[in-house]
Amino acid sequence: MTTPAPQVDLPWWQKYLARGVGCGGGIIAMGLGVFNCLTITPMCIVAGIWQMLAAFIVISAEAPCCCMFIDFVQQYSTWVEGRQHWQKAAFYIILALPAVIMCPGLATIFGSGLIFLCGVLYGMMALGKKGSRDDMIAAAQNSTRPGNMKDPLVDGASPTPA
Domain ranges in the chain? Predict the structure, then answer.
């Protein structure tokens, strides 16, 4: 088994918000996927099946207690827990897009949108904590250009003759 990835010091609420959106959004997406299958349009039926599959993948990763009677779910959840946040973000975002592309209806957009939102939250967690005000001021004052040069377009720029 893999050990969980080292987490940066994130607020506790941010971790639980991403898990809650993943679990709740997965349940809603699964219900709306069933609703999408109640149509005669073949692409919307395929989109509904894709949305239900995506919802099951997200639920089994974020809340394995919901699927505890399926053998491989605990191993899969542990494996996903060991991934970096940016990997989870990319996976969830990519997983949410095909259903919306196949059948851009309200149920598909809302259901897959919640899975997409979970991916966005993990992406924000991957970016990490914002620096303090003093760090931001110091970074703005110290240029990272070679030789610590100032930008000639802003400082001391002279107008060009016409």
Answer: 12-143
